[in-house]
Amino acid sequence: MNVKILVCCHKLDIWASDSPYVPIHVGKELHPELDLKMQEDNAGDSISNKNDSYCELTGMYWAWKNLKNVDVIGLCHYRRYFDFHRQCKWPYPITSFTTSQFKLLDFSIPQSVVDRILKGGIVVPRSVIYPIPLFYDYASCHIGSDMRIIQQIIEEKGDAKFINAFEDVMFRNNKLIHYNMFIMKWDDFNNYCNWLFPILKEAEKRIDISHYNVIQKRIWGYMAERLMNVWLYAEKKNLLFYPVIWINNNSSNMETRIKYLCRTLRYNLINKLATLQLTFKTK
């Protein structure tokens, strides 16, 4: 059984490297001077030079095009891992740990989880619940018209399953699986990549990001987070939800919880203002 879990890295730090974890330097083509002494995403068929806008997807693309004879494939980040051993604080979807705690954490994947994946289950992070549908959440943080273009591309492809899934997930749902993290069978991964990357490639032709700031230029990473939710919903996959370990020296768990609270309050305010505006318009 060949299991590979990519650990996306872009700078010197601490990361999981014991099997089945495979550290990969994402964006290597943009930083040839940096040698992290690990697999690099610019070897073979790659989109490493697009890392500024594709984020961890350049590592995902590299795995899709270059790995062979893999049964189970996953993706996490050097600062984010799935917690299979109840180390996180319930019920939060993510719990912060410091680098000094790193060696005390258990990142191993139980065989029972692998068995469930082989039967068709897909490991994903616990969903984050928003007070508004995902499209409006995206539009409040990014550029809503870009997501409309993604919707248009999906509609042009003509597959009713994905057209309906996009509408249900983006306009009638407020739960989001974050981080582009997953563990799944290779066949599922191959199907997902064959669906995802052509959509993003077409969107690149239609959306000019040359004037976007550094945050907004990460557009394809942000888009893929939403599109993974669409694909999982459309394919009716059996989802195995697990919390996320976050290696972070700059934020305590209390700070993390306060950030979630502030974000919820902000979205509640946006929602109430929109409701008030609609009320005035109908009078």
Task: Characterise the protein shown here.
Pfam families: DUF4422 (PF14393). InterPro entries: DUF4422 (IPR025536). The protein has 283 residues and is α/β, with parallel strands linked by helices. The protein has two domains: 3-250, Spore Coat Polysaccharide Biosynthesis Protein SpsA, Chain A; 251-283. The protein is 43% helix and 17% strand. The chain has nine helices and twelve strands. The chain has helices at residues 51-54, 57-66, 111-118, 134-141, 144-157, 160-171, 186-206, 219-234, 253-282; strands at 3-9, 21-25, 39-40, 72-77, 80-82, 94-97, 121-125, 128-129, 175-176, 182-185, 238-242, 244-247. The strands form four sheets. The chain has a five-stranded mixed beta sheet, sandwiched between helices. Helix 5 crosses helix 7 (186-206), helix 6 packs across helix 8 (219-234) and helix 7 packs across helix 8 (219-234). The radius of gyration is 19 Å and the shape is globular.
